[in-house]
Every structure is written in C-alpha cells, then in structure tokens.
Design a protein that fits this description.
It contains five helices and eleven strands; from the N terminus they run E-H-E-H-E-H-E-E-E-E-H-E-E-E-E-H. The protein is an alpha+beta fold and 151 residues long.
Length: 151
Amino acid sequence: MGKVHNYIGWREAERWKCTRCGKCCEKYIVPLKFSEALTLTRKYGPVALNVNGKYYLTKKADGSCIFLNRKGPIAYCSIYLERPICCKLYPFHITRRPLKVGNPKSAELKWRGENIYLYVDSTCPGTGSGYPIRSLASKIIQLWGRYKSIP
C-alpha cells in the first residue's frame, strides 16, 4: 500500500494544518468503500480499481492520485468536496486499541465513555504546526465514525 506511515500520538504532534503540498496524494494508495467506488465511477468513469474485492482510486502515470492537480507549488483535489473519507481523515488514524508505537497515553482520548487512540502521520509536513489537534479531535472522530459505518 504505497509508502509507510509513521504514526505518533496526537499529544506528541499537538498541532496540524494542511500545507497543500500534495505529498499524501503522491505517496499513498487511496482505499475506497464500495459505495465511494460506485459513486465516483458513476460520475467520473473508471477511476476505481477492484483488487481482490477491495477498491482503490486509480493513479496517474506518475503514481499520483488521479484527482490531484497543481497550480504552481499548491496541490488541490479536483473532487475536494466529494473526496473519499479516507482522504478527509488523513493524516489522522484512529483505533480502538493502541498501536505498537510510542506511549499509548500520547494517543489516548475518551469518546462515548471508551478509550480510543488518535494518531497523526508524522511524515505529513503539516504535523506539528497549525491548529491544536485537541480542537480538531471531535470532528476527526465523528468523521471516523462515519467512515467505519460505510459498507
């Protein structure tokens, strides 16, 4: 699945803001839920690839996402408002059990009475600057909840 993520707990990162560098769109394969693959294929043609029952966005010849565009150094998504939830979640990763990286307390959050773990990909250039992740956490978790419930 493309390059490897380097997850750290959200407390270690403290802040994040998208720098619009486009590196995530160049480095990673974008997994899709079936409903996303179906919707995007209906609207844009053959943009989803089925590999052993799992769906992914296709890539351009240079290996970047099919929907990645640039205006000078600024990257933008040509389907930004309808981009996959996986893209909306990046660089965040949420689990119900801690990953085997760092101190689990640095990723721990309470949500609906249970502990969940929020990680940030430290390879993202926006990690460590910008908005306090604590203020973004609620929206990230809600989005993750939607992602988990999509068939």
